[in-house]
Amino acid sequence: MIAEKIKYLRECHNMTQSELAKKLGLSRSGVNAWEMGITVPSTVYIVKLARLFHVSSDYLLGIKESSTISVEGLTEREIASIAEIIECYRAHRKTAPQT
Questions:
Q1: CA atoms of 21 and 23, how far apart (whole Å)
Q2: Crossing angle (nearest 10°) for helices 17-24 and 28-35
Q3: Which end of the chain has fewer CB within 10 Å, C or N?
């Protein structure tokens, strides 16, 4: 579960394994081992990953299926616009036919 989330978040941020490894101060093979499910990140790296990708450690660990988005530096109007977009997606999901 955590392996898939790390890979998903890395790809969403258009990072290679090498780029992520460099940001975290470890080897590319270490990141690869996480993504392959061979090893799991230590608590120190869980925190670093959460901060880097702006998600909670609970999300990474599969404890809570939600994530956070930092709105630091945005105006109230920009924050309201983002909230409106999220609600549009939720409303669309409720009315869209299930496949």
A1: 5
A2: 110
A3: C
Question: Is residue 91 within a helix (H) or strand (E), and if so which, with residue range?
Answer: helix 76-95
Cβ-contact 85, 77 below 8 angstroms: no
Q: How many C-beta neighbours within 10 Å does residue 2 have?
A: 17
Environment class of 25 (CB within 10 Å of its CB; exposed 0-12, middle 13-18, buried 19+):
exposed
pLDDT at 44: 96
The count of C-alpha atoms lying within 13 angstroms of the C-alpha of 16, restricted to the half-sphere facing its C-beta, is 6
What are the residues whose beta carbons fall under 8 Å from the beta carbon of 48, sequence distance 6 or more? 24
Among 53, 57, 47, residue whose Cα is nearest residue 70 = 53
Q: Evaluate whether 61 touches 90 at the Cβ level (below 8 Å).
A: no
Q: pLDDT tens for residues 17-45?
A: 999 999 999 999 999 999 999 999 999 99
Distance from C-alpha of 55 to C-alpha of 5, rounded to nearest angstrom: 11
